[in-house]
Amino acid sequence: MPKSLPTTSPTTEPRPLAYLRLRADLVQAIDSGELGPGHALPGERELARRHGVSRVTVRKALAGLVADGRLVQRHGAGTFVSERIVKSFSHLTSFSDDLRARGLAPHTRTLAQERGEVTPEEAMALNLSPGARVLRLRRLRHGGDEPLAIERSVIPEFALPEGTELAASLYETLDRFGLRPRRALQRLRAVACDAEAARLLGVANGSACLLIERRGFLDDARVVEFTQSLYRGDAYDFVAELTSIDHDHDRA
Ligand code: 16G
Prior knowledge:
This protein is α+β, with helices and mostly antiparallel strands. Helices cover 29% and strands 32% of the residues. The protein folds into 2 domains: 15-81, Winged helix-like DNA-binding domain superfamily/Winged helix DNA-binding domain (Arc Repressor Mutant, subunit A), CATH 1.10.10; 85-239, 3-Layer(aba) Sandwich (Chorismate lyase), CATH 3.40.1410.10. The structure holds 2-acetamido-2-deoxy-6-O-phosphono-alpha-D-glucopyranose (16G). 2-acetamido-2-deoxy-6-O-phosphono-alpha-D-glucopyranose (16G) binds at residues 94-96, 106, 151, 153, 169-172, 212, 214, 225, 227, 229. 2-acetamido-2-deoxy-6-O-phosphono-alpha-D-glucopyranose (16G) is lined by residues 94-96, 106, 151, 153, 169-172, 212, 214, 225, 227, 229.
């Protein structure tokens, strides 16, 4: 994998455009994997020289990418491509999708798998009647060798009937039957992980984690998954694009 930065020819364009272009070039280099996670960027002076922009422009572009979680600045050491996984709040992606987008290989260890009747809570979450059957999965999710999340999923039997062969990716399995969720409701809160989660995730007891609950829906409004994901707080950045309420009203 080439580890050099893309260069742009010196430019005389006004500073705001130069800053946006440099920023876009860096994002492209990160997204394409040309600048991999943990890669050290050259110093400000070198970046300015390579891109034909001023150091102020470089500083501004870097500051924006640091704020977005794409780069990290370590005091005295320089600027690095963030090793955190950027997760969009507005796209319905799977764990495997997010990891592959980051150039990492997803791995799954199934901790528990069982079938049974819905509990009252599961029936509420999945819109099922009492007595309906579900598949319960508890999985430890890795990126490369690193444990990143623990997920408990409850899937209605109609989606994954007994005898279904499960792929490492739940969404890939559902996709085989045209049942990948098309829409989801999600809520997120910060929690401190307990001793068992800490052991599985390889972090200190009580470390900050994100608990995300997702109800995934099909086009016909049936709920096809209820998943509680415990993501390592030190590994993920959640990013959303927001528009102002006025803007939404203008368009309505
Ligand atoms: C993500 C989803 C989870 C889904 C899983 C499927 C969040 C917060 N959660 O972790 O609801 O079940 O992806 O991933 O994004 P998979 O297809 O790789 O098994």
